[in-house]
Amino acid sequence: MQKKVHLLREITPLTSADCFAIFSRTKSGLEYPLHYHEEFELNFIRNAKGAKRVVGDHVDEIGEYELVLLGPNLHHAWHTHRCQSLEITEVTIQFHKDLFDEKFLRRNQLSFMRSMLENSLRGVLFSYETASLLAYRIMRLNKKDGFDSVFELMSILHELSISRHTRILSNSTFNNNQHIAYNSRRIERVMEYMNENFNKPISLSEVASFTNMADSAFSRFFKARTGMTFIDSLTEIRLGHASRLLIDTTQSISEIAYETGFNNISNFNRIFKKKKGCTPKEFKKSYSAEERLFF
Question: From CA 74, how far away is CA 260, in angstroms rounded?
Fold first, then answer.
């Protein structure tokens, strides 16, 4: 019988009466089990080079400065891993999903903020330069009170939203709660079809027919709208579902490969390693038994 995985849902101490909560501490290790929560989270870590970051289906080691924005219900964890530091500084800021009203975010002046919050559904990693530049303000945020503290948080988030060299961490299909807008009904129809039929063979001609466009014209149109080729997008969708199955179930790697549309196990292993830098087996192992609870 297939065994499913139950991830920890964190009930944060953030109350409905507060705009945000902030936790600042110095510690000798990072051991958080894989978990998720309803709130947005901005996590700053200093002096923990070699620790491991897990965000959605993304796994990597962190550097001297770590600054990540996480959207609601996105699985995440940090582990000591190879970090040797005994004085790790960590500041965690959590704020409600409705702190910034949807109508408020639709205003022109907040377009960058809106985009950043949408991307946080996959996890946003900010550059070393941005993290080091904002480190002092983030570490001093708990010294401010009332409106000054809220204004400072909004100012920090604004600076992050216009910063350069950010990186989106998790696969676009990993977090089931995210909604990506392509500003094109034709592209949205194609993406919907791909997400519903990723486990079957899908050709460029097949999806191009939905848009009444020639294959070459559709290929150019698709890349202009999504920033990816049709093949790369389909592969990302399949890898997102495969990653979730690797984490959430005890199915074998070969079963997962065929269930997510890969024609053979060798092809699956090759593409997975090329895209994620590790084999499916190594990826599955990175989510250790301590990070999960079975039921």
Answer: 21
Average pLDDT over residues 129-140: 96
Question: What's the topology of domain 5-168?
Answer: Jelly Rolls (2.60.120)
Other beta carbons within 10 angstroms of residue 145's beta carbon come to 8
Q: pLDDT tens digits for 264-273? A: 899 999 999 9
Question: Does the pLDDT of residue 293 top 70, yes or no?
Answer: no
The predicted pLDDT at position 175 comes to 66
Residue intervals in the chain for CATH 1.10.10.60: 185-294
Rounded CA gap, 138 and 119, in Å? 21
CATH classification code of 185-294: 1.10.10.60
